[in-house]
């Protein structure tokens, strides 16, 4: 099968197109023929080696974290799927690699593809959808009437999170450029802040939750727009000790992550607010909940560009440019 491989950790390193054997499956695996995949900043960060301390992948490895495709074969213990089913998902850590013709995925990480979406549209959703769901529903427990600030509203996570927060009954503020103002308003944003001309800290106050996806400076400001007891959830770091414990990391890494997050946790305590780091996980059951929202048109995918498989490195470069509106998708098997 064809696959794009990372041969070594390197910032902006090249992907190599390789011919690899078809993956073998275990009893709880499903072999999926990948029809479409999507690109995330997570892919470039893993290639660059930013996460190798706690996700120590051994090169060469296949990149890619989203898929939509069809079931080819199933392990002996798999139930609930049949050969030929259209599925989508985000394979779990240490089993990713969707920039390829096929992949072995744990059945628990998959869900039936939304019937009203193309393969390309479905492939755009798993990672960003699960990130938003786990931030707003699982950790944030957003309730009707609360005020939620979602940074980078025109990005992959932002476009999904705005729609989900509105569905949950929240008042939503977001940042983006003026050229994307109409897009975020159409998705449901109540307050739009042009990050090029406005400082969100001077506009927002009394918020219940912030979904931070930007740098450390933006995170510090985000703490100050929260009301007492409010929660800042960051998907861009710094990782904290709770994350280290959940990952089962060794004491040294737990100590390091405690140091990395020490400043922001101290600031949060001074302001009587809370801080949490979120590194999303694969979850087929949550994807089924997301499917229900998609099939009832409560949430719609936002796809910026679709690249052919051979242009996968160009797709990754485009995402790294920061110009994408919504998601960037790759068609692996055309005509499906």
From TrEMBL:
Molecular function per GO: oxidoreductase activity
Domain Enoyl reductase (ER): 13-330
Pfam families, sorted: ADH_N (PF08240), ADH_zinc_N_2 (PF13602)
InterPro entries to which the protein is assigned, alphabetical: ADH-like_N (IPR013154), ER (IPR020843), GroES-like_sf (IPR011032), NAD(P)-bd_dom_sf (IPR036291), YIM1/Zinc_Alcohol_DH_Fams (IPR050700)
Domain of life: Bacteria
Name the record gives this protein: NADPH:quinone oxidoreductase
């Amino acid at each position: 099968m064809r696959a794009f491989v990372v041969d070594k950790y390197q910032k902006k390193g090249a992907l190599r197109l390789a011919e690899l054997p078809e993956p073998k499956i275990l009893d709880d695996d499903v072999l999926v023929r990948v029809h479409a995949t999507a690109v995330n900043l997570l892919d470039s960060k893993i290639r660059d080696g930013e996460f190798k301390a706690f996700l120590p992948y051994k090169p060469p490895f296949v990149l890619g974290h989203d898929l939509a495709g069809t079931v080819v074969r199933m392990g002996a213990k798999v139930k609930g799927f049949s050969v030929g089913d259209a599925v989508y998902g985000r394979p779990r850590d240490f089993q990713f690699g969707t920039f390829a013709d096929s992949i072995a995925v744990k059945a628990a990480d998959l869900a039936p593809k939304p019937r009203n979406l193309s393969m390309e549209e479905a492939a755009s959703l798993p990672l960003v959808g699960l990130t938003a769901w786990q931030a707003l529903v699982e950790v944030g427990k957003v309730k009707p009437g609360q005020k939620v600030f979602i940074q980078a509203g025109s990005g992959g996570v932002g476009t999904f999170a705005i729609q989900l927060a509105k569905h949950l009954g929240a008042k939503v503020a977001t940042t983006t450029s003026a050229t994307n103002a109409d897009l975020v308003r159409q998705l449901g944003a109540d307050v739009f802040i042009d990050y090029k001309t406005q400082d969100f800290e001077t506009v927002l106050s009394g918020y219940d939750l912030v979904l931070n996806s930007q740098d450390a400076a933006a995170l510090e400001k985000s703490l100050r727009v929260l009301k007492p007891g409010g929660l800042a959830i960051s998907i861009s770091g710094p990782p904290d000790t709770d994350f280290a414990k959940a990952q089962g990391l060794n004491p040294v890494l737990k100590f390091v992550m405690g140091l990395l997050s020490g400043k922001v946790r101290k600031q949060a305590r001074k302001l009587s607010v809370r801080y949490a780091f979120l590194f999303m996980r694969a979850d087929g059951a949550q994807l089924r909940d997301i499917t229900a929202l998609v099939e009832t048109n409560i949430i719609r995918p936002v796809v910026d560009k679709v690249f052919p498989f051979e242009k996968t490195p160009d797709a990754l470069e485009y995402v790294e440019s920061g110009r994408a509106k919504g998601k960037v998708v790759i068609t692996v098997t055309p005509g499906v």
